[in-house]
Write a structure and sequence with these properties.
800 residues, alpha+beta, seven-stranded mixed beta sheet, 21% strand
């Protein structure tokens, strides 16, 4: 009997082999005691590319979209090293009597293993699942003692496969459609259901900052008994009325009207999941999400912390004894911090132990193994995880919050002070802030009312005071950092109105803890975002992509929320994978059709970006027709020295971006874009140089993307052909009625296809038509003698 164990990474395979006694090293695996332990390199096997199905699809063309494989096929990913390792794994699996899936316990780990098994052709072999959250010897032993049949995880694999295939369909078809239509300078327009909403979030924040108009105002304070009181209510405008109020208050005494003290107890923070850990490291040390994940992964593989790619912040109650052992081990290196914990009688607070809040994995905690030499980043991450576990069993932080209300000439004031009664768990945070954090805290200390100590006040006491006006100005929102963007991705449900989608996003957010760092890095790599110190900012290239995409759902977390809700239902057995994938295929077709954007209506200017009412032309510009109702939107005819012609104004209002550059006297050609707040901004014209050097420009079908139908003549009456929202139609007067629909049998018809059909009487063979039965077919479009459109397929023709 030969058992083969497949791990996700070589480092994990070594730990499993050590436990199983497989200590003889072979080429690509470890062997011993009737067991072979081998490994993948993460996603060793994945979905084939379009050109793997048909070499003609290597050329990017709208004529071949959408690409919808009837059956997805697999291939080995990566380089020669990966292909060699796959050959080793496949050979071992074919020789095995039984198999153990030892990939990471979760949806993606399940997918990695099942794809390998499927490509190797050994899906029918007896297989069991190993489910681990730690690589300690005890955890591995417990995992092998509780192996389950792989069939118990079939629904999890169905959800994983649907996620993989749906991302392929949407991402590939959308990316090809937008790149062919708009990538005339060799730019790759990468579109996806997760990365595009994340990019849109950063673009929206940057637009808020870019268009923010600061408002000057006064803060009114007064000092009584050396305590600062702040005026309550709306802020004061920076005008004579505020100064008159100041003079009036100087002549009147302050009267204390209310004194209230309350005790606040702040419980210790929850344990770390990956996103919380990444945010913590970014705030304190400026580490990117990817750097934190890399350090955490090394600590996990070194058996110093538990599995890091988790979204749980609690532990199962069964880990109580394990936590006691871990705290005893930590006492050897953290004696002062652990001395306050009675490990023998360690409690089980629900903020730490809660079976109902633990999914595939529990929170990140130390394993109890003590670290040796660590890199600075690894040390920072380990210390954060260890400190958080220790803090979980510390007393609450207790403070007394006192507020004193007073009036001066019927104007309300309030002073607030805080006194720490018991530091509790917060003693562990002293000295933990980064240098930047300390500087920021010091800068804001003067305005922190809670920093002051309050003497005893009595209701009714009165006396003289010193009022003053402090000059202030409103500040724009802060740009996203890795930490704040991770939080926004995790809580993306707040941006969605639909309650069901909000619930799905509350559970998962945008991306997963394991992929969020990679999403940010992908946007940086593709030059859609740039990192400015700690801030993440959208580039002109990224903002232009967001302006090009007309599909609001592709720019909103709602699509991910909908998908995640259905994927969870599939994993629970409450929905069918086939139904989900059929809907995704339909959506991919729709994306291709709509990638051309909404045609500009020449009969109207367009809607106001602020209130939605129609924009009308004025003497110096174009304003909202709802101006009497208070909408102040105006689009001036002159922008940075250039005059905006009517066609460009229509594009801006109706599509939010111009299709052709506008030449500005001071900077040259620029793309104009209209923000959601109704402000025109100009962007650099995209080119291949906009993206990182070394990226090959994707093959494009220039003719399909750019062929104008305006000069095409109607095949019936030889009159001019034109384009409307849903067809390419005859525009002779009167029109003869000939038209070519923009969608025929579920396939988008491009300008090049329409021109070929009108001038040559037929197109080349086109993929992606769908018959009434739902089956796809390939055919030529052709015109008969009466100018009717039909299909030309092998074995005969049929009319549309």
């Amino acid at each position: 009997m030969v058992r083969v164990v497949v791990a996700e990474k070589p480092s994990v395979a070594r730990e499993l082999a050590g436990y199983l006694g497989a200590d003889r090293r072979r080429d690509g695996y470890l062997e011993g005691d009737g067991v072979c332990v081998t490994w993948a390199f993460g996603h060793l096997v994945g979905l084939q590319e379009p050109h793997d199905y048909d070499s003609a699809l290597k050329r990017w063309s709208l004529a071949t979209l959408p690409i919808l494989p009837a059956e997805f096929k697999l291939k080995v990913l990566g380089d020669e090293r990966s292909r060699k390792q796959y050959a080793v794994v496949a050979r071992l699996l074919r020789q095995a009597d039984d198999v153990v899936c030892g990939t990471d316990a979760g949806r993606e780990g399940e997918l990695i293993f099942r794809y390998i098994v499927a490509l190797a052709g050994v899906a029918g072999k007896p297989t069991q699942r190993l489910w681990l959250s730690s690589l300690t010897r005890d955890a591995i032993g417990a995992g092998f003692a509780s192996l389950r049949p792989i069939e118990a995880y079939d629904r999890l694999f169905d959800a994983a496969r649907c996620r993989s295939e749906s991302d392929w369909l949407v991402g590939l078809n959308a990316t090809r459609a937008y790149t062919v239509r708009y990538g005339g300078s060799g730019v790759l327009w990468s579109v996806g259901r997760v990365q595009t909403p994340v990019l849109a979030m950063v673009a929206a924040r940057d637009d808020e900052i870019r268009t923010f108009v600061s408002i000057d105002y006064y803060d009114l304070h007064t000092h009584y008994r050396e305590v600062r009181f702040r005026r309550q209510g709306e802020r004061l405008g920076k005008d004579e009325a505020a100064r008159a109020l100041l003079e009036r208050l100087r002549a009147q005494p302050l009267v204390v009207t209310k004194v209230q003290a309350r005790e606040e107890r702040l419980a210790p923070p929850l344990l770390h999941d990956l996103t919380a850990l990444q945010r913590d490291m970014n705030e304190r040390f400026g580490l990117s999400a990817a750097q934190t994940l890399e350090a955490a992964q090394k600590l996990y593989e070194g058996k110093l912390i538990t599995y890091p790619r988790t979204d749980a912040r609690h532990l199962p109650r069964g880990m109580h004894a394990t936590v006691q052992r871990t705290l005893r081990d930590l006492a050897k290196i953290r004696p002062r911090e652990t001395a306050r914990i009675d490990v023998d009688t360690l409690p089980q607070p629900p903020r730490v132990f809660d079976d109902g809040k633990v999914g595939d994995h529990h929170a990140i905690v130390p394993t109890g193994r003590l670290p040796g030499e660590l890199s600075p980043r690894e040390r920072q991450v380990f210390d954060a995880v260890a400190t958080r576990l220790i803090a979980a069993f510390y007393p609450d932080h207790v403070r007394s919050v006192t507020s004193v209300d007073a009036t001066v000439a019927e104007v309300a004031f309030r002073a607030t002070g805080v006194r720490v009664l018991e530091a509790g768990w917060k003693v562990l945070e002293q000295g933990k802030r980064s240098r930047a954090g300390k500087a920021g805290s010091q800068a804001g200390k003067d305005d922190d009312d809670e920093a002051q100590d309050l003497p005893a006040f009595a209701v009714g006491e009165t006396g003289s005071h010193r009022p003053e006006l402090l000059e202030r100005a409103t500040t724009p929102p802060r740009p996203y950092t890795d930490g704040s963007l991770l939080q926004a991705m995790e809580t993306a449900g707040r941006l969605v109105d639909d309650e069901e989608l909000k619930a799905a996003l509350k559970a998962k957010g945008l991306g997963t803890p394991a992929t969020r760092a990679a999403i940010i890095e992908t946007l940086l790599h593709r030059a859609y975002l740039v990192r400015d110190k700690k801030a993440l900012r959208v580039t002109d290239l990224g903002r232009y992509l967001i302006a090009l995409v007309p599909h609001d759902e592709l720019k909103s977390p709602a699509l991910t929320g909908e998908w995640e809700g259905k994927l969870e239902a599939i994993a629970r057995g409450e929905a069918r994978a086939t139904d989900f994938m059929a809907a995704i295929a339909g959506y991919a077709r729709e994306l291709v059709v709509r990638s051309g954007g909404t045609p500009v209506d020449g009969e109207r200017l367009g809607p106001c970006p602020r209130c939605g009412k129609e924009v009308i032309a004025g003497q110096r510009g174009y304003g909202c027709s709802g101006w009497q109702g208070g909408c102040a939107f105006v689009l001036w005819r002159e922008y940075r020295g250039a005059t905006l012609e009517m066609a460009r104004v229509r594009e801006l209002l109706q599509r939010r971006v111009t299709s052709r550059p506008c030449v500005l006297p001071d900077v040259g050609p620029r793309i104009l874009c209209l923000t959601a707040g109704g402000v025109v901004i100009d962007l650099a014209v995209p080119s291949a140089g906009s993206q990182r050097a070394g990226r090959p420009a994707p093959p494009r079908d220039v003719a399909a993307a750019k062929a104008p139908p305006a000069r095409t003549l109607c095949p019936r009456c030889r009159g001019p052909m034109g384009e409307s929202a849903d067809a390419y139609a005859c525009r002779s007067a009167p029109p003869c009625g000939f038209a070519i629909a923009k969608v025929i049998a579920g396939k988008a018809i491009t300008r090049a296809m329409a021109r070929a059909l009108a001038t040559k009487g037929r197109t080349r063979v086109l993929q992606g038509f769908r018959g009434r039965s739902g089956r796809e077919f390939a055919a030529r479009l052709r015109l008969d003698a009466q100018g009717r459109i039909g299909f030309e397929v092998e074995g005969g023709s049929q009319s549309e």
